[in-house]
TrEMBL record:
Location of the F-box/LRR-repeat protein 15-like leucin rich repeat domain: 94-178
Species of the source: Senna tora
PANTHER family linked: F-BOX PROTEIN YLR352W, PARTNER OF PAIRED, ISOFORM B-RELATED
Protein name per its UniProtKB record: F-box protein
Family annotation (InterPro entries): F-box-like_dom_sf, F-box_dom, FBXL15_LRR, Leu-rich_rpt_Cys-con_subtyp, LRR_dom_sf
Residue stretches making up the F-box domain: 7-51
Length: 211
């Protein structure tokens, strides 16, 4: 009882500051279950973060969406494939798309997430009006996602489509034509023919294309 009373006396602001140093989401989850104050402190620490990366962690739709929903102020969201086997699916992306932070995100990485499709990507992208950097390399997206990106991300500067073998000239031309700030595109490992690259460079001569 005495130990519990001491925990309760710690200010939420101090708890949030301490939890801000935590790099393990497992530790944060355990801390959140200690008591009501600690849970509030964990949520407050997430709300203060500017960047949220799940690199190297085994995450699923529920845990990822829940953490993102508390990270009100993040600008960068990194959900790449991990050695543990990231289980993020379209369902997770759709839930994440409802988070308050999404409209303010400037950078998103979904690198290597083979469990996602156009459905989830389009839902997420449709709410990202401030996006400047996007990495969807190693996924199975198609031109449908590129058309959504072209429509929803007017501030886009860089995009990684590494090994996205289902994208075609149609989607790429639309993307380059509408995203006027785009200056870098990674097309390594795609099936885009050389004449397509020439057509893209006619539209945007200064575009840096990595193949």
């Amino acid at each position: 009882m005495e130990q519990e009373a001491k925990i309760d006396r710690l200010p939420i602001d101090l708890l949030a500051h301490i939890f801000g140093f935590f790099t393990s989401f497992t530790d944060l989850a355990q801390a959140s279950g200690v008591c009501k104050n600690w849970k509030q402190g964990v949520n407050e620490s997430l709300a203060r973060r500017q960047n949220l990366s799940f690199a190297g962690w085994k995450m699923d739709d529920d845990s990822t969406a829940r953490l993102v929903s508390h990270a009100y102020n993040i600008k960068t969201l990194d959900i790449p494939r991990s050695c543990w086997g990231c289980q993020i699916t379209d369902s997770g992306l759709i839930r994440i798309s409802m988070a308050k932070c999404v409209s303010n995100l400037t950078s998103i990485s979904l690198w290597g997430l083979t469990g996602i499709t156009d459905e989830g990507v389009i839902q997420l992208i449709s709410r990202t009006k401030s996006l400047e950097h996007l990495n969807v390399g190693g996924t199975f997206i198609t031109d449908e996602s590129l058309l959504a990106i072209a429509t929803s991300c007017p501030k886009l500067k860089t995009i990684v489509l590494w090994s996205c073998r289902q994208v075609t000239e149609r989607g790429l031309v639309e993307l380059v034509d509408k995203c006027h700030h785009l200056d870098s595109m990674n097309l390594w490992g795609t099936r885009v023919p050389e004449n397509c690259l020439n057509n893209i460079l006619i539209i945007r001569p200064n575009l840096h294309i990595k193949v």
